[in-house]
Structure formats: structure tokens, C-alpha cells
Write a structure and sequence with these properties.
404 residues, alpha/beta, eight-stranded parallel beta barrel, three-stranded parallel β-sheet, 11 strands, globular
Length: 404
């Protein structure tokens, strides 16, 4: 291993202390990607940011939000879940305009898999994304909370966005999580993301170092000035809600795609009545958000595991299928995301059981329960990334962390 443990604590078994390609602190002086044109970024006054125009491809006129589905509940049985998972048609073209992206129903916040030394496992990543596309997923959030962007250096982050664009950008919409609590970092990362070809960005309000509503609006507008973006409201993580009046103000921006809203379906319904596009950020509420509250769809974690079923839930109202997936969804979020997803994909053999700290796998009892829940839904018939389904042993998991 690359370096000694400098924490002052003994290294526990299967914890790898490594500095190779692991996350470095996100400083203001970020290094440009080797594959992107060098760019010296300096802070710009808000007035200049707001008036700056990107290319015509990034400033398409807004389209009306999709109407709530009028499909009646279906009478699917448990035996038909596998058919529901496989009846979707693969995506053949990425949505790139503001209007088209607003129509996306199923966007997966995709998992980032790792090798034993902590570097990205691109082979596993590509298999997962191929499975996503083949089962109806229309877009990806790359390097989001689920994809552990906060554990990456910016170089890693932009590299992963570039890889996703190069490999899959003609088959689904690539949305890079390039927001930050620092406006300067958000601008730099978002500009780099667009430079390597992402179709849209995900922008978050300043977390930890909270600001005023005026500062919040200015921060988010700065990110939107770089190109089409989805605003992400998740006060459980940021500890600061984005108020309705700020979202309504942002909705007038030509590059505002909509909001990933995690505070519930009542709020989503309020926004959609005003013509503001929403994606549910809560897997357990996504079906009703789509078919009752009028959401465009969901930005989902569980769709990493059962993409076809979530595609079916977004395509047509199916109360029975929605009820059937709830136990698995609940299991996925028993501990803070992405702990459950990392555990499940490891048990599926979709990726190596390697965790970047501070995340650690579920305990054995919970893992066994997770296997049973997935098998009850149909196992590999509904979870296409399964290579071998097993609860694994504690010793099978490897944990990597920086030795600074």
C-alpha cells in the first residue's frame, strides 16, 4: 500500500490506506483536465455572469412540462414483474435540448465502482451503464451523492463525466453533478463539464456555509449561466431548504431545466401547477410523484438495481408494482445513501466489494435480508446487473481511504 496510516489509530483489517487516485480536498485552485483545453478561470461579477450567453445548443426555448399521466392502475401480478422489467425499449438517442431533457422520466444517479486500490473500475461502470440503457433509463447523474462525487478530486470528477460522454453520450443524457458550496468551484467545474461534452449540470445550494436567499439565488444563477441545469433541493443534506420564491425566480432563467425535489409530493404538485418541471428525489414517493403530483419523473438510486421496474413505474401507473418494490426501496435507504446501494451492487457482483471511506457495508444480517428481498422480486430477471447474487462475508469487503 502507498503510505502509512497517519490517523494515530491501528489500521483495521481490510482497510487499505492508499493515496493512488483517491480524492484530494476540493480547493479553489483546481487542475484542468488533461483532455480539456486549459482554461484560466477567474471570479466574475454576478451582473456579467447573468448576461453571459453560452452556445445556441445550450439556450433552447423552454418547453411546457409534461402533463400528469392519466393511465389507470394496472392489474400486474408478482409473476409479471420480470416482464415489466424487460418490456421497455432501449434508448437510442440522448436528449440534449432544454425541452427534451425536461421530458426525461427516468434518470439514474449512477454508482461509481472501484478497483481494490481505490481507482475507478471503468469496466464495471460501463457494464452497469449498458444495463441501464438496455432497460429504459434515459439519463444519468454522474458523480452525484450516490456516485460519491464528494469523495473525488475534481480531476477524477471531470474525467468520469468525460468518459461517460465519450462512451454513452449518444445513447442517453449525461448530467454532471458539478455544483458546489463554493460559487467559484461550481463555475469552474460546470464549465469544465460542458467543455468535455455533458448535456446538463446538477446544481446545489451552498451547504454547510449557508447563505441568504439572495446569495442562494445568485449562486444558482451563476451555475445556470454556464448551460442547462437542474437545481437540487435536498435540505436533509444541505441543512437549508431552497424556498419556493427562489425556485420560482430561477424558473425564469432560460437554462433552468427543473428541480430535483426531495421534500415531498405536496411541494412537487404545487410547483407543477405553476409550470415548473420537477423530478422526485425520493424513490419511495416517485411513482405517486409522477402519476399524481405531476412530476416529469424521478432521479433514482434504486434504478441502479432494478432499472426496468422503475422505467415501468414511470411509464404507467401501477399501484401493485409500486407496492411490491417498496420493501427493497426501504432496505436501500436503511442507512444513509449510498451505503445500501454500494452493498447491494457488491452482493450482485455488479462491482467489486470495494468502498471508499467513510462508507461501510451493511452487516451480514441485513445483507441476507437484501438478497431475499431482491430474489422475491425476481432476482436477476429484474436486476440485469446481477452476475452472482450472494450476501458475501464480512471479509469480502475492502475499504480504502487517503493516508494524509
Amino acid at each position: 500500500h502507498a503510505g502509512p496510516n497517519t490517523t494515530g489509530l491501528p489500521s483495521p483489517p481490510h482497510f487499505h490506506s492508499t493515496t493512488h487516485n483517491l480524492a484530494s480536498p476540493r480547493t479553489h485552485a483546481m487542475t484542468s483536465m488533461a483532455n480539456a483545453a486549459p482554461h484560466k478561470h477567474t471570479p466574475r461579477p454576478h451582473a456579467r455572469i447573468a448576461s453571459r450567453r453560452r452556445s445556441a445548443a445550450r439556450t433552447v426555448a423552454a418547453a411546457a412540462p409534461p402533463a400528469p399521466s392519466s393511465n389507470k392502475p394496472s392489474s400486474s401480478s408478482t409473476a409479471s414483474f420480470a416482464a415489466a422489467s424487460n418490456r421497455v425499449a432501449p434508448s437510442t438517442k440522448a436528449a440534449k435540448s432544454v425541452g427534451d431533457i425536461r421530458k426525461l422520466k427516468l434518470i439514474t444517479a449512477v454508482k461509481t465502482p472501484y478497483l481494490e486500490d481505490g481507482r475507478f473500475d471503468f469496466e464495471a461502470y460501463d457494464r452497469i451503464v449498458d444495463d441501464q440503457i438496455a432497460h429504459g433509463v434515459e439519463g444519468l447523474i454522474v458523480g452525484g451523492t450516490t456516485g460519491e462525487g464528494h469523495l473525488m478530486s475534481w480531476d477524477e470528477h471531470i474525467m468520469l463525466i468525460a468518459h461517460t460522454v465519450n462512451q454513452f453520450g449518444d445513447r442517453l443524457t449525461v448530467i454532471g453533478n458539478t455544483g458546489s458550496n463554493s460559487t467559484r468551484e461550481a463555475l469552474h467545474a460546470t464549465e469544465q463539464g460542458f467543455n468535455v461534452g455533458m448535456h446538463a449540470s446538477l446544481q446545489i445550494n451552498p451547504y454547510y456555509g449557508k447563505t441568504s436567499n439572495k446569495g442562494m439565488a445568485a449562486h444558482l444563477k451563476a451555475g445556470l449561466a454556464e448551460g442547462p441545469g437542474i437545481v437540487y433541493n435536498v435540505p436533509a443534506r444541505t441543512s437549508q431548504d431552497i424556498p419556493d420564491e427562489v425556485i420560482e425566480e430561477l424558473s425564469q432563467h432560460e437554462n433552468f431545466l427543473g428541480v430535483k425535489e426531495c421534500t415531498g409530493n405536496d411541494r412537487i404538485a404545487n410547483y407543477t401547477k405553476k409550470g415548473i418541471v420537477c423530478w422526485s428525489g425520493n424513490d419511495d414517493e416517485a411513482h405517486d410523484a409522477r402519476h399524481i403530483a405531476g412530476a416529469a419523473g424521478v432521479i433514482s438510486v434504486t434504478s441502479n438495481v432494478i432499472p426496468g421496474l422503475f422505467s415501468s413505474l414511470m411509464d404507467a401507473r401501477d399501484d401493485e408494482l409500486n407496492e411490491a418494490v417498496q420493501p427493497l426501496v426501504s432496505w436501500m435507504f436503511r442507512e444513509p445513501n449510498p451505503t445500501g446501494l454500494n452493498t447491494m451492487l457488491s452482493m450482485m457482483g455488479a462491482c467489486k466489494p470495494v468502498f471508499r471511506m467513510p462508507y461501510m457495508a451493511y452487516d451480514k444480517e441485513w445483507r441476507e435480508e437484501g438478497v431475499q428481498l431482491l430474489e422475491a422480486l425476481g432476482g436477476d430477471a429484474v436486476a440485469p446487473s446481477v452476475r452472482s447474487l450472494s450476501s458475501l462475508d464480512d471479509d469480502d469487503f475492502t475499504y480504502v481511504y487517503s493516508s494524509r
